[in-house]
Design brief:
The protein has 423 residues and is mainly beta. Helices cover 3% and strands 50% of the residues. The longest helix is centred in the middle third of the chain and has 6 residues.
Length: 423
């Protein structure tokens, strides 16, 4: 009765692994309200990455012997950045693998936990930025480098060093840089923020505090958000430009808490994310939490960085993280729900909030997410018409505007990430 390839391993008293493999074609998809935006869905599961062909309803192995820690889709859904542990003979290696247009490139490969370092690769537009941290020496052991995605696709995959933490503008011609030279010598992260060129080389100092969170607003303007740990209900908001000598502090610093519910107005606030609002370049989302309340609720506020106006938008009850649609019309969030039927644990459903109509829609039936504790993932299509959501044994195809939700059971357990791909 299994609807897909499914492996069930049993350990008998003899200690020998017996493996039973069930193979059956996946059922055809029903009539869909909209054309699907991609040819494949990629799934990161226990020890492997699978590709599910949406046209043929076929599942295949893309990466075997690879335990994915992080899977990041490219902006145009043409590929993925994979990070995790790969088995290389008898050794475990930490790898960053770039898939683009069907081509596979290993960006770097390091012995897993043998060199005393941890590695993190982050995707920034057409660049993959790699952070390597030596755990024994703290900040003195932090190095930063990057790979050019387009160059790697053409066979010129060269790791290029950076002077510090680097954030590129949307057009890739400007950077915000936190140089690590001073931090490396002192061991303290009290470093300046600089404007840099397209190669990440610092050109002009714009601030002397490393506690800023930064976000490019367009190709020439940026926002700096500073959390004041010692203050209640306050964060500092600064706007800057590549043409200005120094950023300007917005007059709404003390007004952030004023737009929140009363219970949050005396809490030390932390801005955990700054997200541009698609289609409205003058607006950004501020994601706010209390810095002293474990598991504190999330509140979403929009900031007009041109006027300084703040507007409270919504608070998804029981939020466990989420993702805005590319067109800025939907917020998708995981919500805890008691589906125990008398037991003491919670399932997780996906709530979709229409930011224009201020209405919510519960997309996924939480009864289908009984194994959600193994990990979840969300991925919007580039055209914002479709959303992928994941549970342990399959994924959902969700079309929010049509309030459509179809569950595809793959049968593979332990899946933790899902993404669209047009290989």
């Amino acid at each position: 009765d299994y609807p897909a390839d499914f492996v069930d391993a049993l350990l008998p008293p003899s200690g020998i692994w017996l493996q039973f493999v069930y193979r059956q074609a996946l059922p055809a998809l029903p009539a869909l309200p909209l054309p699907l935006p991609a040819q494949e869905v990629r799934l990161a599961c226990l020890g492997a990455v699978y590709g599910y062909d949406l046209v043929r309803q076929e599942l295949r192995v893309v990466e075997d012997g690879f335990s994915v820690e992080q899977m990041t889709p490219l902006a145009d859904d043409s590929g993925l950045l994979l990070q995790g542990r790969a088995t290389n003979g008898e050794r475990e290696m930490w790898q960053a693998v770039l898939w683009r247009n069907g081509q596979r490139v290993v960006l770097y490969e390091r012995p897993y936990q043998l060199d005393g370092k941890i590695y993190v690769a982050l995707l920034q537009g057409e660049r993959v930025v790699v952070y390597a941290q030596d755990l024994l020496v703290g900040l003195r052991g932090l190095t930063v480098s990057y790979f050019d995605v387009n160059a790697c696709a053409m066979g010129d995959c060269v790791e290029r060093p950076l002077s510090g933490i680097t954030l590129w503008s949307p057009d890739g011609q400007q950077t915000l840089v936190w140089p690590l030279g001073e931090a490396a010598s002192s061991g303290q992260l009290s470093i300046a923020v600089w404007l840099g060129d397209a190669d990440g080389k610092p050109q002009q100092e714009i601030g002397a505090d490393a506690s800023f969170t930064a976000q490019w607003l367009d190709d020439t303007h940026f926002l700096l958000v500073r959390t004041l740990a010692e203050s209640l209900g306050e964060v500092e908001l600064w706007s800057g430009s590549v043409d200005a000598v120094a950023p300007t502090r917005l007059p709404t610093t003390s007004a952030v808490a004023a737009v929140l519910p009363a219970a949050m107005q005396n809490e030390p606030l932390t801005v955990t994310a700054v997200t541009p609002v698609s289609g409205q370049p003058q607006l950004v989302w501020l994601t706010l939490r209390s810095s002293r309340m474990m598991g504190s609720p999330v509140y979403y506020v929009t900031l007009n960085w041109q006027t300084g106006e703040l507007t409270f938008q919504y608070h998804p009850f029981g939020d466990h993280g989420g993702l805005f649609s590319p067109d800025g019309r939907w917020g998708a969030h995981y919500m805890s729900s008691d589906v125990s039927g008398g037991d003491s644990w919670f399932g997780i459903g996906v709530n979709l909030y229409n930011l224009e109509q201020r209405e919510s829609w519960q997309a996924n039936n939480v009864q289908l997410l009984l194994n959600s504790r193994s990990g979840q993932a969300l991925d919007w299509s580039v055209d914002a018409q479709w959303l992928l959501t994941l549970d342990e044994y399959g994924f959902h195809l969700v079309a929010p505007d049509a309030q459509y939700d179809h569950y595809v059971v793959t049968g593979y357990p332990g899946c933790t990430a899902v993404a669209w791909e047009n290989p």
